[in-house]
Amino acid sequence: MKAIGFNQPLPISDERSLVDIELPDPEPGPNDLLVAVEAIAVNPVDTKVRASARPAAGSWRVLGWDAVGTVRAVGRDVSGFRVGDRVFHAGAIDRPGCNAQLQVVDARIAAHVPEGLSNEDAAALPLTTLTGWETLFDRLDVQRPVTGAAPALLVIGGAGGVGSITIQLARALTGLTVIATASRPESVDWVKRMGAHHVIDHTRPLAPQVSALGIGAPAFVFCTNGIDRYLPDIVELIAPQGRIAMIDDPETLDIVPLKRKSLTISWEFMFTRSLLGTADIARQGEILRELGDLVSQGKVRSTRTETLGRINAQNLRRAHERLEGGRTLGKLVLAGW
Predict the structure, then answer these.
(1) Which CATH superfamily is domain 145-268 in?
(2) Residue 228 CA neighbour count, 13 Å, CB half
């Protein structure tokens, strides 16, 4: 099968950073689906792994954690899927990714693609939806109010892939007032289209801007990037006993300032369930099925903003370069071979 891989961590400007290769076709295990990949999306995790991982000598690492495709084979213990089904999934970080014509994925973390949704639009959804959903309902526990706080959610980095879908999920599934951060005219317009009630500028101090909204101190803050940079402002603006969630990887993080307000901070890592085989791993498939219902009802839409062409090393390097530039809106997608 065709695939795109790397065998050493290199800057994306180097043509060897991602290479077109040929690999043997994978075989599904008892709980797996074998999926013929038809469209993929690219996420910051792809760039981070590419820049830091060092595959074993003589081997290739295949990235990619957003895919849409057609089921080619079904493991003996799988139920609910059959050959020919159209599915989408985010996969697992410790298994070969979707930058390949064929991918093996645990059926419990996959779901059928909603009718009427194109491959490109569907590919943009799984990883960020799972991240946003788990953040809202498992980490921030937004359905449990914070006494005395404004029923509001601040999303720092609202125009990125995770921020874009989190705004939509919060609007579709909660009664929270959604505040998003964006700093450029095009990103401000984007987060408004995603459903943000208010937009503030993350290049300026956040606390005075939140205060100026006149809605009170928010109960919840989701920081999608730069938590070490934004944490002092978050501690100032959030309500006492509020809850904070993050997804990035600061080298160090001083949480002592959270004590005075009895704040809670949680890390969201979408791959925890698949990586550790948690007892509730099947919840990810359920979330994607619930997402499908929301899409079918018109309550959530794809965050795809651009399709960069077919799935090959050259176009994938372009996508990585764009993500590393830090100015993308929504999700970048590749489709076809």
Answers:
(1) NAD(P)-binding Rossmann-like Domain (3.40.50.720)
(2) 7
